[in-house]
Design brief:
Layout lengths: L1 E6 L3 H13 L5 E7 L3 E3 L18 E3 L8 E5 L2 E5 L4 E4 L4 E3 L2 E4 L3 E3 L16 E2 L4 H13 L3 E7 L9 H16 L5 E6 L9 H13 L3 E3 L4 E5 L4 E4 L4 E3 L2 E5 L2 E3 L1 H5 L24 E3 L12 H19 L12 E8 L2 E7 L8 E5 L3 E5 L4 H18 L28
Helix pairs in contact: 1-6
C-alpha cells in the first residue's frame, strides 16, 4: 500500500485529495490529509466582513465536510518534515510516514515581523483584514470612524491575494461616500511597489482609478517600524506616514515547520520547479498553492489551475512516466471597485494583465481590466462556486493554462485574438 500525505486542508490540499481519491485505487493507495483544525475559511470573504456585506457564518465551514470517503483527516500541528526519512512529525509526537508528500500549508500574515505593529495600537487604531479576528475587529472600528486619515498599507510582497488591499481601498472610498463622510476622510494607499500593482499596464489603469477617487499613493515605501505613540509608519528611507486608522497587510510567510525542516527560503516558501511544483530538494515532495516560491500571485485561482496540472503529472509520475504537464503561472482575480462594480485580471508568468473579454472573446461576459457590474456579480457568485464546485474537485469550464483569446495589448497594434 502506497501512502500519499497532504499537509494542509485548504484550497489546494482539499482539491488534491478529492481529485486523487477518485483516480487512485483505495486498495493501492492510502491518502491522509493533516491540518491544525476543522475550520475551512473562505478567505476572499474576509474582505467583505468590515463593510457588513458578508456575515461571519458565511465565510467558514468544516474541513471534513469537503473531504471524500477514503481520506483520513488528522487534526494536528506539524512539527517538522524529515525529507530524507520520508517522515512527518506532529507537535504531539505522532509520526506519519509517506511515499509522496504534498505540502499545501499556505501563507499567513505575520505582524510580529514588523517592529511596533503589535504594539499598544494593535486592534485599537491598527488593524488587518486577512484574518477572521482582524476583519471582525476592523468592522467595529470602521463603524466608529467618521473623520481623519485612513491609511491602507502593504508591508512587503509577496502577499496572499495581492489585489485585496486595492479592493479594500476602493470599497472604503465607496462606503465612506455612501455614509456622506468621504470629504472628512483622507485616504492614503501605501505600497512597497512603484505603483498600484506589480505589472505596468494594470498598474497604470488601477493607479488612474485611485487618482479619480482622490486617493493619495505613497509608493516605494518599505516600512521599518510603526511608531505607536505618534501613530505613524516610518520607512527605511526615513519617510513618515501618519494615520488615524491604519489597515495594514503584514508580512506574509510560509509555515514555520517549513523552516524547521530546512525546506524553505527566507520567507519559508519551498523552492520548486515552477512548472511541475516538484521540490528542488526531494523528488517525492511537492509544494502546491501558496506554500511554494513560484513567481505568480498567491491566490486561490493559482491553487486551482496548478492543482489541475499537478494531478495529471502525479499520476504520470507514480506510473514511472515523465511528467508532461507544465503550469504556466495562470492567475485570474476579481477586483472589487465599489458601487457594485468590479474588474477582472487574467495573467501568467509571461503575460501581464491585459484589457479584453473573458472567457469568451468579445462576448465575455466578464470584462478584463474594465469596471463592470458583471465582474462584481462574478465575484459574489464565486463563493457558491468555491464551496460547491471548486473544493469538491468538480470540473469547471475554465482552462488551466492562460489563453490570449479575447485579450488586447494596448501597446501593440494587433486586434483581439479570437
Amino acid at each position: 500500500m502506497k501512502r500519499l500525505l497532504v499537509l494542509g486542508a485548504g484550497t489546494a490540499g482539499t482539491m488534491i485529495v478529492n481529485k486523487l481519491r477518485r483516480r487512485l485505487a483505495a486498495t493501492d493507495w492510502h491518502i491522509t490529509v493533516v491540518d491544525r483544525d476543522d475550520v475551512h475559511p473562505y478567505q476572499p470573504g474576509y474582505l467583505f466582513l468590515p463593510f457588513g456585506t458578508y456575515k461571519p457564518e458565511q465565510v467558514s465551514r468544516s474541513r471534513h465536510a469537503f473531504l471524500p470517503d477514503g481520506v483520513d483527516f488528522v487534526i494536528g500541528e506539524v512539527d517538522r518534515v524529515d525529507g530524507a526519512a520520508d517522515l512527518v512529525t506532529l507537535t504531539d509526537g505522532r509520526t506519519l510516514a509517506y511515499d509522496y508528500l504534498v505540502i499545501a500549508s499556505g501563507t499567513s500574515p505575520r505582524p510580529d515581523q514588523t517592529p511596533g505593529m503589535l504594539g499598544s495600537e494593535w486592534r485599537r487604531s491598527i488593524f488587518d483584514f486577512f484574518t477572521f479576528d482582524g476583519a471582525q475587529a476592523l468592522a467595529s472600528a470602521l463603524k466608529e470612524f467618521d473623520h481623519g486619515r485612513l491609511v491602507v498599507h502593504i508591508t512587503d510582497m509577496p502577499i496572499k491575494c495581492p489585489v485585496a488591499p486595492l479592493e479594500f481601498t476602493f470599497l472604503a472610498d465607496s462606503w465612506l461616500r455612501k455614509r456622506g463622510i468621504r470629504d472628512r476622510v483622507e485616504l492614503v494607499y501605501v505600497t512597497p511597489l512603484p505603483g498600484a500593482f506589480t505589472k505596468p499596464i494594470a498598474s497604470a489603469h488601477l493607479g488612474s482609478m485611485l487618482d479619480e477617487r482622490k486617493i493619495h499613493v505613497e509608493s516605494d515605501f518599505l516600512v521599518e517600524h510603526i511608531d505607536n505613540e505618534k501613530k505613524m509608519l516610518v520607512s527605511f528611507d526615513e519617510r513618515e506616514v501618519p494615520f488615524d486608522l491604519l489597515v495594514t497587510i503584514p508580512l506574509n510567510m510560509g509555515a514555520d515547520f517549513v523552516a524547521r525542516s530546512g525546506l524553505g527560503n527566507e520567507l519559508n516558501y519551498i523552492p520548486v520547479d515552477r512548472h511541475t511544483l516538484q521540490s528542488k530538494q526531494f523528488a517525492n515532495i511537492f509544494a502546491v498553492g501558496d506554500s511554494s516560491d513560484i513567481p505568480t500571485s498567491k491566490a486561490g485561482s493559482v491553487a486551482h489551475f496548478s492543482v489541475e496540472i499537478f494531478v495529471d503529472n502525479f499520476l504520470q509520475l507514480i506510473q514511472g512516466r515523465p511528467m508532461t504537464g507544465a503550469f504556466d503561472g495562470h492567475a485570474n482575480c476579481f477586483i472589487e471597485s465599489g458601487d457594485h462594480k468590479g474588474l477582472l485580471i487574467d495573467f501568467n508568468y509571461d503575460t501581464e494583465p491585459l484589457p479584453g473579454a473573458y472567457p469568451l472573446p468579445l462576448v465575455g461576459p466578464m470584462g478584463l481590466l474594465k469596471e463592470t457590474r458583471a465582474n462584481h456579480l462574478g465575484k459574489l457568485a464565486f463563493r457558491w462556486i468555491y464551496w460547491n464546485v471548486l473544493l469538491p474537485g468538480r470540473w469547471m469550464p475554465l482552462p488551466a493554462h492562460m489563453s490570449m483569446i479575447g485579450k488586447k495589448n494596448p501597446n501593440r497594434t494587433e486586434n483581439l485574438i479570437t
